[in-house]
């Protein structure tokens, strides 16, 4: 923080305008405000590591402006004054249509950077091991052919088209793979 000079009145006025337009930050931020915040400070997010009894890992497909197409560990950014457990439940419901039970503490904490981008370019990610309490929504299950944004599928290891930023989780994704299964293959 630069305390050497008084705050610029136009900056103070701009911040007051943004603050008035933001509303209740506990409900999430308007996208332009969120994108601004993500350029100014790291975002904290939860990622859900879900393995089944066969050791397969549940991943979801994303295809968006920021990370492009690829499989990723389901996750979401913690809202202001939101508990990590509540964000985990919201991610499970929103991305999988399921309920999960998460470990009390993250399995790993990692920093994720996008090398060329400032907007949504720095995250502190808390990877929680989770167990499904209800099955994922079958309507979102990836069928044959190219996955659609929001599809989920079980994987026996890290797929080749795992988004670059989640390659830091390969060890954890493959840690649940049962002996004899070929890493990287989609099974459902």
Walkthrough of the structure:
The protein has about 190 residues and is of the alpha+beta class. The chain has a domain of about 130 residues: Nucleoside Triphosphate Pyrophosphohydrolase, CATH 3.90.79.10. Helix content is about 20%, strand content about 25%. The strands form two sheets. Strands 1, 4, 5, 6 and 7 form a five-stranded mixed sheet that branches. Strands 3-2-8 form a three-stranded antiparallel sheet, with no helix packed on it. It is elongated, with a radius of gyration of 19 Å. The N and C termini lie far apart (about 50 Å).
What is this structure, in a nutshell?
This protein has helices spanning 9-22, 31-40, 84-96, 170-174; strands at residues 43-50, 57-64, 68-72, 75-77, 100-102, 108-113, 122-132, 152-155. It is built from four helices and eight strands; from the N terminus they run ααββββαββββα.
């Amino acid at each position: 923080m630069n305390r050497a000079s008084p705050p610029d009145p136009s900056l103070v006025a701009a911040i007051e305008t943004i603050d008035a337009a933001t509303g209740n930050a506990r409900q999430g931020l308007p996208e332009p405000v969120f994108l601004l915040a993500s350029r100014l400070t790291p975002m904290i997010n939860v990622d859900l590591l879900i393995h089944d009894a066969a050791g397969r890992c549940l991943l979801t497909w994303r295809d968006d402006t920021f990370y492009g197409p690829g499989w990723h560990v389901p996750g979401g950014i913690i809202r202001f004054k939101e508990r990590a457990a509540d964000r985990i439940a919201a991610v499970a419901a929103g991305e999988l249509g399921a309920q999960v039970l998460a470990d009390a503490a993250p399995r790993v904490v990692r920093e994720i950077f996008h090398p060329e981008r400032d907007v949504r370019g720095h995250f502190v990610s808390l990877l929680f091991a989770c167990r499904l309490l209800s099955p994922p929504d079958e309507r979102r299950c990836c069928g044959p052919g190219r996955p659609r944004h929001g599809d989920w599928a079980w994987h026996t290891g890290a797929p080749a088209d795992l988004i670059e930023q989640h390659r830091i989780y390969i060890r954890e994704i493959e840690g649940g793979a049962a002996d004899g299964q070929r890493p990287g293959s989609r099974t459902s």
